[in-house]
Every structure is written in structure tokens, then in C-alpha cells.
Amino acid sequence: MKNAFVFPGQGSQKIGMASAFVNGYKTGMDTMQEIEDAISFKLSDLIENGAMEELTRAENAQIAIFAVEMMCIRILENEYGYNLARRCKYLAGHSLGEYTALCAAGVFSLSDAAKLVRRRGELMSRAFPDSENYSMVALIGLCADDIEKEISEYTVGDNVCVIANDNSDTQVVISGHRNAVNEFIEKIKSMPGFKKAIALQTSGAFHSPLMAKVAIEFDKVLASGFETHDFNIPVIMNVTAEPLSDKDAVKIKMLSQITGRVRWRETVQYITNDAEIGKVVEIAPGKVLSNMLKRSNPEMNTCALETVAQIEEFIKAEEAED
Question: CATH classification of 131-202 is 3.30.70.250, yes or no?
Fold first, then answer.
């Protein structure tokens, strides 16, 4: 049996989330230093001692989560000798987490991936200076198929509302102009299964056509000398929900993700339908993806790694299976 590793995205950040990895392992400290050197920013101070409001800003949250995830991966490999390429069949990340997956797969160097994540966060943070006019809302109780036809009329123009994240059979995130989002929520409140709508704390309408200018700017970033390398492990990409192992196709998929839907429900289905997958491992911080998976597939073996004890327990279990 093999594992699938998954990486959460923005929203999982919390003050102190790097403590176990920075204080417990030399590899953690070295990884953080390499990332800080790449982006010329003292990230560790912000994560450990900063204000939550500052950490939550997209340009900080994204690189902070990426750093914690990559520290965990490198600790597994360097401190415990875990052979990721041999033990893991797929990698997948939710939105931002896809960048960690690509880095862990060897497609980008740690330095290049850190620069890309930092620049992505900066572009997203500045994309909506009038952020009060845009919103993202999680719809609980409905699946994408339930609302696909109803939302189709909102996909273009000055009243955009689209599916941004297809997370599970009972959770969909919509994104767009605030007026359109609110109008759509009123429209579907009477649908069977609808439970509630939860506004997300975001600064814009991410994963929507309204991100087109960000995609154009990020295309320039990708073209400015970032080299892609061969995959060590296939990555299930957000926009296709299928594994990718062609390094020449990576940048196109990354650009599509900026304006396109995160097909997480289908990604999870792909993983859990593979009989060779024995465990889904969520890499820190948090347990949002493994909890979501457990709700939709209670039989799937999952675990989350965000503490020293959890890493050591995971390694012992892996060794026992050999």
C-alpha cells in the first residue's frame, strides 16, 4: 500500500504554527532560513510572534503556510529517512497547497517555490483594493451539481458569481461580486439540502474570472526564469483533478488555477478510488482537509502531521508496515 499526501491552503494559518518544527529539528531551522533568504523577509518572527491580522494577509499567510508544510516534508525525509518518492503515490494541495505539492514533488526548488508563493500572495493581496465589493461564501449542505445550472447566468459581466471551490458533497465555496453572491444565496436558500452560508474572511473574489489580471501578471512572473524539473511523484492538479507528471505542462495549470475552480471533491474521489492508497496524510498546519475527507469517506485511513509526536507516531506506523 502507498500513501497520498495533501497540503492545506490559506486559512489554516495560526500564530506559533512553526514552533514544533523550528525548535525541534535542525532541518526545520535550515528550511526556514533558506525560505527567508529566498524572499528577503524574516518570516519566522511573524509566524512565532506576530499579530494574527498581519499573518492573515495573503502575502504573509501563503508563504507562512508553505514554509510550515515544507519544513514538515523535509523533516520527514532528512531527520527520519522517510522516502517520499517510494512511499507516496500522489501529492495534492488545496489552492496554495498545490505549490507545496509541486515543490515536494521536485518540480520547483525550495527557493524558487518560495519566491513564487510570495509573489502570488502579493498579487492576490493587491488585486481588490475595493475588497468590500467582493466576497467568497461557503455554502453548506449543497454540492456543485446542485447549483451548477442555477449559477451559470452569473459567470460573466458586472455581476459575477461562480463556484470557486468544489470541496465536498456538502460544501461549495462561491466567489464574485458581493451583490451577485448575496443575490445568488437568496436564490438558492430554498433548495433541498441547503443548511447555511458562511462568509469567508478573504480580501477578494479568488478562483474566479475576476482574477484575470492577476493571472496575466503571474504569467510574467513564471516567464522570468523559474525552471521546472521532472516530477518525483505525480501531483493531482486543482483544475483537472487528475495527476500530472509532465513538467512542461505545469505552468499552464498553475495559471489556470488562479481564475479556475479548485476541484477538491474530485481530487479526493480520485485518491480514494485508487485501491493502492492505504492512507491520506495531511501535512501541517491543521486538519481541515483530513476532517473534510473523513466526513465524505469515513472508511478512509487519514492522519495529520503538525507536531513532533504526530510525526514520530506516523514514522513508527510506517516502519511497522515494512
Answer: yes
Question: Of the candidates 84, 78, 95, 125, which has an alpha carbon nearest to the alpha carbon of residue 11?
Answer: 95
pTM: 0.96
CB 96 within 8 A of CB 64: no
- Distance between first and last Cα of the chain: 10
DSSP string, 44-61: HHHHHHS-HHHHHSHHHH
For 211, residues 6+ apart whose C-beta sits below 8 A from its C-beta are 124, 127, 204, 205, 258, 259
Contact between 69 and 100 (Cβ < 8 Å): yes
pLDDT interval class at 228 (50, 70, 90): very high
pLDDT band at 322 (very low <50, low <70, confident <90, very high): confident
**What residues does each domain of the chain span?**
2-127+211-321, 131-202
Catalytic residue among 44, 177, 203, 207: 207
What superfamily does domain 2-127+211-321 belong to in CATH? Malonyl-Coenzyme A Acyl Carrier Protein, domain 2 (3.40.366.10)
CA distances from 263 to 10, 94, 159 (A): 16, 9, 23
Cell numbers placing 54? 498581519
Q: Render pLDDT for 98-140 as a digit per residue (tens, 0 to 9).
A: 999 999 999 999 999 999 999 999 999 999 999 899 999 999 9
Q: Is 94 a catalytic residue?
A: no
The one catalytic residue among 95, 125, 208, 290: 95
C-beta separation of 139 from 187 below 8 A: no
Cα–Cα separations (whole angstroms), residue 315 to 3, 63, 87: 13, 27, 12
Mean pLDDT of 235-245: 98
